[in-house]
Structures are given as structure tokens and as C-alpha cells.
Amino acid sequence: MNKSVLNKRRFMIRAAQQFGCTAHKSSRNWISFARVFEKAAERQTRWLEFPRAMADAADLSSRGYREAIQKLNTLQTPAKELAEQKKSGARDLTKAVDHVKGFAARVELDDSKLNSLAAVHVAGTKGKGSTCAMVEAILRAKGNKTGLYSSPHLLEARERIRINGVPISRPAFATHFWECWDLLVQHPNVDPTSPDMPTYFRFLTLLAFRVFAAEKVDIAVVEVGLGGRFDATNIIPRPVVCGVTALGFDHTAILGHTLAEIGYQKGGIIKEGVPVITSVQPEEGMGALAQCALDKGVFLGVAPPMQSYGPGEVIPAIKGEHQLENASLALQLCRAWVARTAGAVAAVDHEAGKVVPLGGFLLDDKERAAIQAVRWPGRSHKMEWGGLQIYLDGAHTAESCAACAGWFRDVSEVDASDKSAIRVLIFNCTGGRNPTELLTPFAELPKTVRIDAALFCPGAAPVAQDNPDQVNLTVEPEELLVSAMKNLECWEALQKGAADSTPALAFAYFDQCVEHIRKLQEEQQGVPVHVLVTGSLHLIGAFLKFTESEVI
């Protein structure tokens, strides 16, 4: 029996013991769980394959939002193809930007149009989305018409493209989508090294830039998708200002295994003659960014501590100690953008590649109000649902999970108001990440806010047939289920030797996980239940979809 089959059997046996008997009470042995496992994989496959089949079979004459998303999903790279690329080493990204430039030309996005977006371009490992949300809110408060491009989405793909802080409407998305699609079809590819059609993220990037140009925004805030140097967003020849948030370890198979390598990739967005500002970085990462700045003939500004913007304390509406760092970077980027678009020349009294600490300044009323009111769903996000106190955070790196644990510790302790509370963790991580590193901060929470039950499940809800926005073809259905068991085993390993280890269960389906919490809530007879959902933004989206919550 080969290793993969042995591993699958091991997980089936483990799952039969751990969640086969809870989520599926009739499954009392590994053979019967194998049937459950196969049915779950089949069910997941149906969710994932449905949109592609519908895109081929549906009458697209209406060309509405649903049809657009079904067609968009055909641009996702299937999991098997990604696995083959990884195995063969065929995933060469060095020509990625050139390919996207070719697509941009086919959809009538030239350099002049891209530069007219007056972009703030932001890369980094942690806090990119929050920083971009703050930049957008501040510049909108100052009277500018804003565009914001971010990823991933939580509920609907249109969330990624916002005008004045609001996702574009379904009809607007559909109109722009089909215009973009038709242009790609009408203007055939002439680059033999490039695929005929862009992938999912690349298409959405082109779509966002076309929307912003059509809407004549004053400012486009653009969040990098992955890395920076070879990212689809890096086709903007001359942003107004570039920013880099905190560096950390994520997507290491693509970006590198050291902060120097990762910093080199993130620093790839730095452009000649364009100011670049970063958060405080570890020495290795800062050195890499400084070298990128040197290569482009600019200095590297470093945002100061948030205390530099006094007098008076400014607490960002997006909670968490780490958000203070993001807020400072956002403020610096906004001031630089305002100065540059007003015709001011960037300071040139520093040599290229020099790391220059920047000073704070007194905030005006609009800046202060925007920072204190900005909202970014799924990040340090609190909500109530059915009597449960829910805490949502899409942390998915070791550093961001540590920050999330600190945020949860602080707010859950306050929310309990000195009363006892049951605290439940719902967790999932995939994408080659190390579950032990991500789970450790939650396993080490102090007794006052310790996790009383840990639940693990795939970051998908049974909604694909009703909502193609939630479909993810880039992960094998079977792998989604196996990852839940891996996460469970890592949690239990962290609990070894503990005097009072936390009960842990895994579930094949997300909805069963929530049902289990409902039963737990009933058993507690009025004791508050605090539920922390983290590890993946896809998991956050699944929870929000299941609870029919609004984030738009």
C-alpha cells in the first residue's frame, strides 16, 4: 500500500474516532467513515464543479451578475493543474507582469490610463487590506472620489472593487465584466508565451482598473494580491506613492523562505521617482526593501509610532495593537499622496536606498474621524448572532495569528464583564501553511480566556449551487477534508501534557460545526458563549454566508 493511501486510511481512522461519531453518529468504524469521507468529497466536488458546468450550459444571453461569476470561475486554475505545476516546477512567474500588460492592452488599458488612476500601491504580508481600507477612508473624507481594489472577497466577488467605499452593484459588475470579457475575445493573444485568457485574479485586476478609469476616480487604492514584483497589480507604471506593510512568512513556496527573499518580492512594487513608505521591519526585511529602493533611486521612508500624531490618543476603529502600525502607515501614505497630487516634489535630500524615519504630524479632523470610523469586515470584527458573541479575524500567518490571539484575549475578557464565558475556536488553514505555528497562540491563551472547545472544518459552506461567488476550484475537495484532520491533530499535539486539555472535534461540513456550537449553547443554560473564527478569510466568508450576515 503506497504512502498516500496509508495516510488517507490513517486520517479516516482518526476521523471516525474524532468526528465520525459526532458529525456522523452512525459511523463507528473507519470503513463506514470512509464512505462518509467519500460522500463528503463527492459533495464538495459537486459544489466546486457546478459553476464550471453551468458556465458551459447556461444561456448567457442575459449576461447578468450570476452568469458573469460563473464565467469568471472558469478562469480559476484547477487544483490538479496547480499541483502539477508545483511538482514540475513549471510555475514561472517571471513573465507574469508582461503577460498582464498584454492582457491590459487587449482591454484598452494603456500606461496613460493606468497612471491616471493616481494609485496608492500597497504590498506586505500582514495588514495590507486594513491599511488600504484606512487610506481609502482618509482620502474619501478629504473629498476625493475613491476606488479600492482588495482581495479576497468574503461573500461576493464585487466586494473586491469599491467606489467611495461601497462595492460596485451587481448590474455594474456584470456590465463591466462582459465588456472586458468581450474585448479579450475580440482581440486575440499575440504573445506565444502567454495564455489566451488571464487567470481569475488577473482578470479581476484588469476589471477593477477599467471600472476605476470609467468612474474617473481621483485615487485608486490598490492592494497587492501575492508578493508584488510579479503580481498582476504591478502593471501600473507610475503610482503616486507605494507602501509596504509588515513582512512575515506566507506563501513561502513562491516568495521565498527568508525575510530577505520575501522583502525582495514585496519591494518589487517600488518605482523610480515614486516615494515608498514602510512600516517598521525586522532588519533582514528592511535591508531587502532598502536595496529595492536603491535600485530605483529612491529612499525608504519608515512610518513612526502612532503616538507621533498627538496630542490626543487616536484609536483605529479596526481593533488590535497591530492596527496602530497600519494606521500610521496609512496616514503617511495619505499625506504623501496629497502632497504629490498637489504638485509638491518628493523630498530628495536623502540618498537612494537610505532608510529614513519619518516624523509624525498633527491630524486634522477628517483624518482623525476616518481612522476612528473605518470598517473592514473579517478583520478584528465583532458581531452577535443568535445569542452568540462572534469574533472574526482572517489571520493566516504565525504573526497575524499571534496578533489575533492578543486581540481576542483583550476583547473577550472585557465582553465577559468578569462573568464566566465558554470560549470556542473555529479554525481552518490550508495552502501549505503550518497549523502548529498558527494554532500555538490560541493554545497558549491565559486561563482567564482559555479556549474551552476547538472545532475544525473546511473553509467552505454548502452554498456553491446557490452562490457561485463562494466557489474555490484551486483546492482539491478531498484535501479540504484532510486538512481539518491535520489541524485537529496539531491542536491535540499542542495539548499534550496539559492538566486540562481542551476538547477538540473536526467536522466534514461547515454547517455541522455551527450546529455543534448551537447544541453547546443550549447546554450552557445562559452562560455566554464566545466564538472565535480564524485561520482563513475563506472560513470567515463561509461563516458570514451561513449566518446570512451583511458585510456590504
Nearest-integer average pLDDT: 87
Spatial shape? globular
Largest sheet: 9 strands, mixed
Looking across the biggest beta sheet, what order are the strands in?
4-3-2-5-1-6-7-8-9
User: How many whole angstroms does the radius of gyration measure?
Assistant: 24 Å
Structural class: alpha/beta
Number of helices: 19
DSSP helix fraction: 40-55%
Beta-strand content bin: 5-15%
Key features?
globular; 15 strands; disordered N terminus; nine-stranded mixed beta sheet; alpha/beta; 552 residues; single chain; six-stranded mixed beta sheet
Describe the fold and architecture.
By secondary structure, the chain is of the alpha/beta class. It is built from 19 helices and 15 strands. The strands form two sheets. The protein has a nine-stranded mixed sheet with strand order 4-3-2-5-1-6-7-8-9, sandwiched between helices. Helix 3 packs across helix 8 (170-186), helix 7 packs across helix 13 and helix 16 (435-443) crosses helix 17 (477-495). The longest helix is centred in the N-terminal third of the chain and has 28 residues, at 30-57. The protein is globular and about 65 Å long. The termini are far apart. The model is unreliable at 1-37 and 43-59 (pLDDT under 50).
